[in-house]
From TrEMBL:
Segments passing through the bilayer: none
Signal peptide extent: 1-24
Taxonomic lineage of the native organism: Bacteria, Pseudomonadati, Pseudomonadota, Alphaproteobacteria, Hyphomicrobiales
SUPFAM superfamilies noted in UniProt: Periplasmic binding protein-like II (SSF53850)
PANTHER family reported for this sequence: BLR1237 PROTEIN, TRICARBOXYLATE-BINDING PROTEIN
Keywords linked to the UniProt accession: Signal
Protein name per the record: Tripartite tricarboxylate transporter substrate binding protein BugD
Tree of life domain: Bacteria
Organism per entry: Devosia aurantiaca
Recorded family membership: Belongs to the UPF0065 (bug) family.
Length: 326
């Protein structure tokens, strides 16, 4: 009897493996949608569209980008968490996946258990920028200006939980000052008002600021990473400008709904790695002040580890700042 049971179990394993192989060979047989949980034109949208175009070539099916903004990115993420786990609805989200548990008392999803990680995509530096006619000439003068004017300064961001808001929180905490925050429904509208002079400052990803900085349409003061950014070599880091230990980059990851077949996840991971190794993607990323992650980071394991560690980190920061979305 034991021998029969053993043979049956082995047969089931073999059938399961063959089914997974067949599924991977058939997938994808229709277009794949990547949901971006923010408005079109923002930095996460820009990154996603570059990756989606390259993945389309690798998968042999169109990869469509769908913007589902609202509620600090939780609306779009919740939509993907509830989607069929067949590999045709994915999520490309940023650092907000790790901040949401601390910001929202009730979420329509669990970032860890309701998603199957596919891989990290990129880590984007941020820039401290202002309307082009703001008085301070450099970062030292800006720090003094912020300390002297505090709440008279309007600071735009993409809403609660957005990377632009988190950067502002860290900066205000480091300088021990409060500015007047002006939240928007996405970074795109915030940038529009900054360009128009309706707000004074913001902190945003290089993917959304580099072209405006280079065109002289906004004034740039510093980057938020420990090292200077190659595309913006004249911008000092905050750490070298009197704000010690300031280090913030915005990581992005690709996810599928939990329960997606491992063979499909493996195929998507391979496609993501192929997209990030594409020379045109790397060149486009470089023009935006960032770079694709290494292949060993574009994996489910690396993304899962990043998400877990960042949930703990941002939980402490957000709790100390007393910020919540509800």
């Amino acid at each position: 009897m034991k021998s029969i049971v053993t043979k049956l179990a082995a047969g089931l394993v073999a059938v399961s493996a063959l089914t997974g192989i067949a599924l991977a060979q058939e997938y994808p047989s229709q277009p794949v949608t990547i949901v971006v949980p923010f408005a079109a034109g923002g930095p996460t949208d820009t990154v996603t569209r570059l990756v989606a175009a390259a993945m389309s070539e690798d998968l042999g099916q169109q990869v469509v980008v769908q913007n589902v903004g609202g509620a600090g990115g939780t609306l779009g993420a919740g939509q993907v968490a509830a989607a069929a786990n067949d590999g045709y609805t994915l999520l490309l989200h940023h650092i907000g996946m790790s901040t949401a548990p601390a910001l929202y008392a009730s979420l329509p999803f669990d970032p860890v258990t309701d998603f199957a990680p596919i891989g990290l995509v990129t880590e984007v530096p941020m820039t401290v920028v202002a309307r082009k006619d703001l008085e301070p000439a450099d970062i030292g003068a800006l720090i003094t200006f912020i300390k002297e004017n505090g709440e008279n300064i309007t600071y735009g961001n993409a809403g609660i939980g957005a990377a632009s808001q988190l950067c502002g929180l860290l900066l205000q905490d480091a300088l021990e000052v409060k500015m007047t925050e002006v939240p928007y429904q996405g970074t795109g509208p915030a940038m529009t008002d900054l360009l128009g002079g309706q707000i004074d400052m913001m902190c945003d990803q290089t993917t959304n600021t580099t072209s405006q900085i280079q065109a002289g349409e906004i004034k740039a003061y510093a980057v938020t990473t420990p090292e200077r950014v190659a595309i913006l070599p004249d911008l000092p880091t905050l750490a070298e400008s009197g704000v010690p230990d300031f280090n913030l980059s915005v990581w992005h990851g690709l996810y599928a709904p939990a329960g997606t077949d491992p063979a499909i996840i493996e195929r998507l991971t391979a496609s993501l790695q192929a997209a990030l190794a594409d020379e045109s993607v790397a060149n486009s990323f470089a023009e935006l002040g960032t770079a694709p992650v290494a292949a060993d980071q574009a994996t489910p394991e690396a993304l899962a580890a990043q998400l877990e560690s960042q949930i703990g980190l941002w939980g402490e920061v957000i709790s100390a700042a007393g910020v919540s979305a509800q």
